[in-house]
Design a protein that fits this description.
By secondary structure, the protein is an alpha/beta fold. The chain is built from 15 helices and 17 strands.
Length: 519
């Protein structure tokens, strides 16, 4: 066991006026399985890059271990997988490699295939195995689940259960619960570490937020009461003070109160009233200061809305015995299902099973002639008519709101994006604000957004549309946990008709009313 010490860490990007981290200090035990959480744009990947020494910063970071970053960049993917592992872990022996990949359900024959022929999920598992084979390494694992299907996520989580010494950035609640024993959280104003998994951290967070909101309400009422008492005390003190001199003293003399004892009594009474006023003011100021220390880390998760349209008939989509093939290779066959109004159908299957092809096929048929590369209505690259056999029926005149899996095409300003997609700019930006976008982000080019922020742009655009059906392709990739729960609550509350692909187990269990699996 050893410690990673972060002391007085301060960092901001060149040309930025805002610090990502300001005077941050904490310690990490190298034996911890540390889950790393925080809203998009808070600096999780930035912090990992600082540990790797990729940016200059103020403060100190000391450690007795070597940091290794995942995803590892593979320069030549044409090499065999065994050569890639040898590049990642040059000191690993053959038997060690076989033992490690077997834990991740990777067949030995995979070692002799070009790395480029492996699926994204297989590449993820191979690189994780290689990095854990490095000695004296502390792994910085940055969102590995975005390329893993549900079964692969379970395999990797079991694998990580047997490891120690890593920081894992992930927004998959079930995945974090399965394989971490501490949580490192970037809050709005600080960084904190708690023992336990994500669920225990979330429970404690809800308790703390609830306590702070209750204290805030109590102090708000106390401040009002103290203000009223202070005003009354001030009136009494001023009234008593006036008896010591001027008109008040003259009135006292007319009433015969001319003795030294009487004047001394009034003076003492005035002093006490003035002291009481000062005490009330001090208590009020103390309550205000205490109140100002609350709610700083309470995450404002506002309710979202979705604007659905009712279709004139119950059935929207019908597939019977559908098959899709590319380049002579069959992707899937014998796919049959129907989508009725109110259904929220989760399309499941392994990586490469054709889930995205099904979504694009249905979206393409619904949009018809609007699906063109130069269209200002579609403008989502890679969506075209999918060649298929079998019967596919999509209701006439159905309006579809689509969220593609890919975000790499996003560039330019948010206002231009809204104009091109013919959505209301004010509503679009209001939704982004609810998804934790700061107003500063509205002035930036989308190319500079984090991966999670880009995905939020597509979801916000989809929520701006009034539609009969919502087709979302892995909408939660890179999106922070709180926003996932926010979107989940939206769907459960408004019950839109949906066809979606998502590998977040908790989300699917809470949202889906029907499940169709591609084999």
């Amino acid at each position: 066991m050893s410690l990673i010490n972060i002391s007085n860490l301060t960092f901001s990007y060149d040309g930025s006026y805002d610090d990502i981290f300001t005077d941050v200090s904490f310690q990490i035990d190298t034996d911890w399985k540390l889950g790393f959480c925080g809203r998009n744009g808070r600096g999780k990947t930035t912090f990992l890059n600082l540990l790797m020494g990729r940016f200059e910063y103020r403060g100190t970071i000391t450690a007795s271990v070597m940091f290794e970053y995942f995803p590892f960049v593979v320069e030549d993917k044409s090499l065999n997988t065994s050569e890639i592992i040898a590049e990642v872990a040059p000191d690993a022996l053959g038997w060690q490699v076989l033992k490690e990949i077997s834990k991740l359900s990777i067949d030995e024959s995979t070692l002799y295939r070009p790395f480029s022929t492996l699926s994204n999920g297989e590449q993820t598992k191979v690189l994780l195995a290689g990095l854990f084979l490095r000695e004296n390494s502390f792994l910085l694992i940055d969102e590995p689940t975005n390329h893993l299907d549900m079964q692969a996520r379970e395999t990797v989580s079991h694998y990580l259960q047997g490891k120690s010494g890593f920081i894992l950035v992930s927004h998959d609640r079930a995945f974090l619960d399965d394989c971490v024993d501490h949580i490192l959280s970037i809050n709005k104003t600080n960084i904190e570490i708690q023992s336990g998994n994500f669920s225990s951290w979330c429970y404690n967070k809800q308790l703390q937020d609830g306590f702070e909101m209750a204290e805030n309400e109590k102090l708000r009422k106390d401040i009002k009461r103290l203000e009223a008492a202070a005003r009354q005390s001030s009136k009494w003190a001023d009234k008593v003070e006036s008896t010591k001199m001027g008109k008040g003293a003259a009135k006292a003399r007319k009433k015969g109160h001319t003795s030294i004892d009487s004047m001394a009594y009034n003076a003492e009474k005035s002093r006490r009233m003035q002291q009481r006023r000062k005490n009330l003011e001090r208590r009020q100021q103390s309550a205000i200061e205490e109140k100002s220390g609350l709610l700083k880390n309470v995450e404002a998760v506002e309710n979202l809305k979705i604007y659905t349209l009712k279709y004139h008939s119950q059935g929207l989509v019908f597939l019977d015995n559908v098959a899709v093939a590319y380049g002579g290779r069959e992707i899937f066959q014998n796919l049959s299902f129907s989508l009725d109004q109110g259904d929220r159908l989760a399309l499941m299957g392994g990586n490469g099973s054709g889930k995205s092809s099904v979504l694009k096929m249905i979206y393409g048929m619904a949009e018809g002639e609007k699906i063109k590369s130069d269209s200002l209505v579609c403008v989502y690259p890679g969506v075209d008519k999918i060649p298929h056999t079998g019967q596919v029926r999509v209701g006439s005149g159905i309006i579809v709101s689509y969220v593609p899996q890919d975000t790499s095409f996003l560039a330019g300003g948010l206002s231009e994006f809204a104009e091109n997609r013919q959505i209301d700019e004010s509503l679009f930006k209001a939704i982004l604000r609810k998804l934790d976008f700061s107003r500063v982000q509205f002035e930036k080019d989308m190319e500079d957004f984090s991966a999670g922020q880009k995905k939020k742009v597509l979801i916000a655009a989809s929520l701006c549309m009034q539609a009969h059906m919502y087709i979302w392709d892995e909408p939660l990739n890179y999106i922070d946990v709180l926003s996932r729960m926010q979107i989940e609550e939206l769907i459960v509350s408004f019950k839109p008709t949906m066809l979606f692909v998502e590998h977040d187990r908790a989300f699917c269990e809470n949202v889906a009313t029907k499940v169709v699996e591609l084999i």
